């Protein structure tokens, strides 16, 4: 196949967590490249505002990732709105629990349901829809450095993201015969709204000081790689882990 120009016209993508941060930046970029986008998020105000401001072919679908029924309804609604579904970015995630010794069953369940189980069953619903359409597609999951090295007080989150790493590779194998590629983006420290709301300027600066570029990544810098992996430009890739982290996990 010759070199291709990148256009996502007539393609439809679901972005979980599309109301803010990396998810929102992914929705913006997909829309700018001509795709139809479904912003799937629990935050109705932010999700509605995001869909309205991003573009005409962007819809918000209220989604509770902890409910498997909500995930299948999301895929049906997407097909109803745009006629098909071509890909999925599993971006949303939450942190709960704090220290390992203090983490409760309820915290662990919440983190697993949103960060891991939803990735499993939403990918399953999207894959079934793509197979039924007789088309091909792409899924991009989002991990974290916490899946690859110890981070204090994030054991539930780290475990859920480790699950996403393994799941990505497993699905890349299982879905290959169906023409569905599955890849992983692992972001480094990214200055999203939730991070900026949680950390003080001093804490943000202390983290930046330890990074190679002495600054946080922007959500757009991460979104570029997610969109690349959703597009045919990455058609030679599946089961890959793309570290978008300014070299943070380089062996040294
Ligand atoms: N920001 C970082 O520094 C960083 C670093 C490494 C990995 N990541 C990963 O990148 C991804 C995006 O991070 P972010 O900082 O942009 O996140 P964010 O907190 O800005 O956005 C998360 C979105 O998910 C939505 N959401 C949360 N729970 C939900 C639920 N139950 N159902 C539906 N929607 C729900 C929220 O409403 C929000 O819009 C996450 O997977 C995160 O783990 C982020």
The major beta sheet can be summarized as:
7 strands, parallel
Determine the structural class based on helices, strands and strand pairing.
alpha/beta
Give the CATH superfamily. Answer: NAD(P)-binding Rossmann-like Domain
Net shape: globular
Order of helices and strands: EHEHEHEHEHEHHHE
Give the percentage of residues in beta strands: 15-25%
Counting structural domains, the number is 1
Radius of gyration: 17 Å
Model description:
The protein is built from 8 helices and 7 strands; from the N terminus they run βαβαβαβαβαβαααβ. By secondary structure, it is of the alpha/beta class. It has a single domain (12-190, 220-244), classed as Rossmann fold (3-Layer(aba) Sandwich). It has a 7-stranded parallel beta sheet, sandwiched between helices. Helix 1 crosses helix 8 (219-230), helix 3 (68-82) runs parallel beside helix 4 and helix 4 runs parallel beside helix 5. The protein is globular and about 50 Å long. The chain starts with 11 loop residues before the first strand and ends in an 8-residue tail after the last strand. The model has no long low-confidence stretch (mean pLDDT 97). Nicotinamide-adenine-dinucleotide (NAD) binds next to helix 1 and helix 6.
């Amino acid at each position: 196949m010759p070199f291709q120009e990148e256009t996502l016209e007539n393609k439809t993508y679901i972005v979980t967590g599309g109301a803010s941060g990396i998810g929102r930046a992914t929705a913006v970029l997909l829309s700018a490249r001509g795709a139809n986008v479904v912003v799937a998020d629990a935050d109705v105000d932010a999700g509605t505002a995001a869909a309205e401001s991003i573009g005409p072919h962007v819809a918000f679908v209220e989604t509770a990732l902890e409910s498997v029924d909500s995930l299948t309804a999301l895929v049906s609604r997407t097909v109803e709105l745009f006629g098909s579904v071509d890909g999925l970015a599993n971006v949303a995630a939450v942190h709960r629990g704090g220290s390992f010794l203090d983490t409760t069953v309820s915290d662990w369940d919440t983190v697993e349901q949103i960060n891991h189980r939803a990735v499993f069953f939403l990918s399953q619903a999207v894959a079934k829809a793509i197979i039924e359409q007789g088309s091909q597609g792409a899924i991009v999951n989002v991990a974290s450095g916490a899946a690859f090295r110890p981070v204090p007080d994030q054991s539930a989150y780290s475990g859920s993201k480790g699950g996403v790493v393994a799941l990505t590779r497993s699905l890349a194998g299982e879905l290959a015969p169906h023409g569905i590629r599955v890849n992983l983006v692992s972001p480094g420290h990214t200055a999203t709204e939730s991070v900026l709301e949680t950390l003080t300027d001093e804490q943000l600066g202390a983290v930046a000081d330890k990074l190679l570029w002495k600054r946080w990544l922007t959500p757009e810098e991460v979104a570029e790689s997610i969109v690349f992996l959703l597009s045919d430009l990455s058609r030679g890739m599946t089961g890959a882990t793309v570290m978008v982290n300014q070299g943070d996990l380089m062996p040294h």
